[in-house]
Amino acid sequence: MKVPEHRSLKEKQRLEREELILQVAQDVVLEKGYRDTSMDEIAARVGIAKGTLYLHFARKEDLMLAFFEREMQNILQAIEQLPVTEEMSARAKLESIVNIMHKDASGKRANLLFILFNSEDFKITLQQKSLDTLRRISDKVRAYLEEGKTRGEFDPNIPTDILLSSFFSVLSPRAHRRLFLEEGYTRQEVLSCVQKIFFRGIAKQPS
Amino acid sequence: MKVPEHRSLKEKQRLEREELILQVAQDVVLEKGYRDTSMDEIAARVGIAKGTLYLHFARKEDLMLAFFEREMQNILQAIEQLPVTEEMSARAKLESIVNIMHKDASGKRANLLFILFNSEDFKITLQQKSLDTLRRISDKVRAYLEEGKTRGEFDPNIPTDILLSSFFSVLSPRAHRRLFLEEGYTRQEVLSCVQKIFFRGIAKQPS
Amino acid sequence: MKVPEHRSLKEKQRLEREELILQVAQDVVLEKGYRDTSMDEIAARVGIAKGTLYLHFARKEDLMLAFFEREMQNILQAIEQLPVTEEMSARAKLESIVNIMHKDASGKRANLLFILFNSEDFKITLQQKSLDTLRRISDKVRAYLEEGKTRGEFDPNIPTDILLSSFFSVLSPRAHRRLFLEEGYTRQEVLSCVQKIFFRGIAKQPS
Amino acid sequence: MKVPEHRSLKEKQRLEREELILQVAQDVVLEKGYRDTSMDEIAARVGIAKGTLYLHFARKEDLMLAFFEREMQNILQAIEQLPVTEEMSARAKLESIVNIMHKDASGKRANLLFILFNSEDFKITLQQKSLDTLRRISDKVRAYLEEGKTRGEFDPNIPTDILLSSFFSVLSPRAHRRLFLEEGYTRQEVLSCVQKIFFRGIAKQPS
DNA sequence: CATGAATGAGTGTTCATTCAT
DNA sequence: CATGAATGAACACTCATTCAT
């Protein structure tokens, strides 16, 4: 009995520390970007030696990928736990997804994902590991878009690929960053307008 | 009289070289990204010494800023030279602008702007220098958006800031990159669908 | 009575483990060389914690020295247990020694000694600890060389030191490695030729 | 005329510096071995910045290879410039080669070659670059060994490969290091004895 | 003005060694 | 006694920037 407890204590501490590292790494990446985030700085901010960092993540890449993946997992889980009923419209379902993506109060999550997503270096990592979670999220959205088309909610003349691409580009929280940060709009306000635009835009046209 | 002429000759050569540097720098950035573009490589490709590069641009940042600015200038000029007549709808005018942004056959221009716009390092520079041209382009778009509202083309209930932000996010050529590169759509096809979505989305609703 | 037994049991276990460590260390060194053998890997292969390794050997050097010494001890013992009769020629005795050095079928032993003997790092250790066993082995060879001289087998005009040095350089199994590995000669073949050369070379000249 | 002179001046300085780097690198390698020789230390001892080192040699490997190759070239050249006449015996020719290999008063050259030759890391480099010079030297020796066989000087029953391997192992200056350094023998003395052993050993046996 | 050699701070990563548990 | 997490010095290599010529 003793050993398991002991182990799980250590394991718990390990996970806590790993969590801390991920948190710090996120902060630094948010401040400085992927390239300018050095393992040195992360270690220093966490308050551990550089070598210790490498005990948790064998490469800088892995660390970055870890928190990217974690965020994607969070999103995917939230999406999968969404209460979807038959009578809900496709639009309502997609709006729930948008809400999840924007939920993070500080907007950190979205920024982070965006930074990584567009980092020249990270893209390579991403391709190599071909993140499954990413695909599953986008498949979910695609499924709802197609559902909307068959239900007669959305315009069937626009290819689903293009709808998907548009969904992520307009509704991406990053896209409208400036509005919150500099222009004083609330997230809610922006979100509701942008959704309005998108869903009107893709709505099935009265024949 | 002599000296000025001499000077202006030199000045002309200087400008020609500067132009060449900017061209080369663009190519390299397109190939390798901001961070992986080294001053060495630019100098080598231009065929001048590295020191000479620094005679034209005191920092790497400045060089990058310069060609960013130049592209923006090109776009601004094209926008300003657009043949706009009174009877043209606001939508038609905005579509012309979108065309300009996408015109560049290879998509080079758009890629370039996007790379810089999202480069971790360059963002800082951009904020510091607060590019005037950028503002003037966006002012132009904003003006047309507002014109559309007053003309009854666009929904007056959506704040212009949000329309603007949406305009740039959906219509950005970069947003839909994957569709050309991996999914086999043509630029034209994507563009026309995305425009349809956007303009329908912002259209004034029948009361 | 109890405690000593207990102790000796523990002591026995300790020695067994030490033996195991030495075995594993040898294998790794043979595979990867001195420098690329990490304490981590040895510990992992033995199945103990890294800290435990340091309970047995305070430094990496010491561990390496230990198995070097052990091999030398093995060789020395084998040499000392050689059945030497009065009527055996000095040459026959020396040939037995050569056989011992080459006996190890796989050539492991010889490779190992050579690796350590020529390892940049290890040489320092070797000098500091000035391995006694090494000297005893070479003393044995020297004794036979001198015996050969007095018996009239070997040329008395060549200083024994030089004979000794030559003995180890020509007859070293490592010296002819390439011949086995790349040229397809058998160990036996090479050995017999090389011995022929050496013993003819040092034979007393007919006056 | 001016530019060429200028260039050749710069070029001369460059070569001088490169020479200095090679010298220093040799010294450090002799002191510490391949692995423990750091680029930092070489730079510091030369009195230049680390970056400057990399201006001359793009990798540590290249620097090491450069002076290895240089030494081999020196030896090869000396061998090729040897005055060989028809009536010279094969043995005489081979002795000249041995003399060249031992000529270096301090024995530095030989040590250096040996260190590199047996460095775990450098071997890889050597294999990749498959040093031509090395092969040409050994081909020269092999040619003389075979000449000796056909002339009836050397024992035709021993495969030339084995003769070659023995030649380099017995006659290698490194093999007998200890004798000079610790036992007080002169190079000349050792050399002459060792040659005697080798050439007697390989001599054709009276039938 | 043009050059390009020189700089040196900075990067990710490794690994022998220590020590609290 | 055994553990293995933590350390931190060390390494090869890069590149924007400077400056003597």
Question: What can you see in these coordinates?
Answer:
4 copies of one chain form a homotetramer. The first copy, chain A, is built from 11 helices and no strands. By secondary structure, chain A is an all-alpha fold. Chain A folds into 2 domains: 58 residues, Homeodomain-like (Arc Repressor Mutant, subunit A, Orthogonal Bundle), CATH 1.10.10.60; 148 residues, Tetracycline Repressor, domain 2, CATH 1.10.357.10. At the A-B interface, helix 9 and helix 11 of A face helix 7, helix 9 and helix 11 of B. Chain A binds a DNA duplex (21 and 21 nucleotides) through helix 1 and helix 3.
Q: What is the domain total for the residues of chain A?
A: 2
Shape of chain A: elongated
Q: Which structural class should the secondary elements of chain A be placed in?
A: mainly alpha
Please identify the top-level CATH class of the largest domain in chain A. Mainly Alpha
Total number of strands of chain A: 0
Q: Tell me the strand percentage band of chain A.
A: under 5%
Greatest interface by residues involved:
A-B, 40 and 39 residues
Q: What fraction, in percent, of the residue positions of chain A are helical?
A: over 70%
Low-confidence stretches of chain A: none
